[in-house]
Amino acid sequence: MSVSKKSTSQGILLITVVAPGLIALVISLYYFGTDYAALIKAETYVTQLVEDANTSERKLEYAYHRTLLHRINVLADGTWGLLGCMIAAIGIHGLTNLRD
């Protein structure tokens, strides 16, 4: 393979596989952090409601379901981060295995 063909192949792999994978990883890690902070806040609020003597059942159920929503968001963000990391790793693997 000629030098220009190899550099073209490397450029294509970088632009189409590695860069989108890293972008997906960074974006999902950012949202993972914000959603995880919201989950901690929601869990703390549920704990306060449980310890309060005059909390209604409706208010407690609503707060608990909000924590479930945050748990799902944190799981989804972590999954997208893992997927982005795998895509970037496949691209990097392709870069290292280009034949001379």
Characterise the protein shown here.
It is a single chain. The protein has two helices and no strands. It is rod-shaped and about 75 Å long. Helices cover 89% and strands 0% of the residues. The mean pLDDT is 93. The protein has one domain (3-96). The protein is mainly alpha-helical.
Task: Please summarize what this structure is.
The chain has helices at residues 3-51, 57-96.
Number of strands: 0
Specify the structural class.
mainly alpha
Termini separation comes to 6 Å
Strand content: under 5%
Give the assembly state of these chains. Answer: single chain
Number of helices: 2
Q: Give the number of domains.
A: 1
Low-confidence stretches: none
Taking the sheet with the most strands, its summary is:
none
Shape: rod-shaped
Q: Percentage of helical residues?
A: over 70%
Question: What is the mean pLDDT?
Answer: 93
Query: N-to-C SSE series?
Result: HH
What is the gyration radius calculated from CA atoms?
A: 22 Å
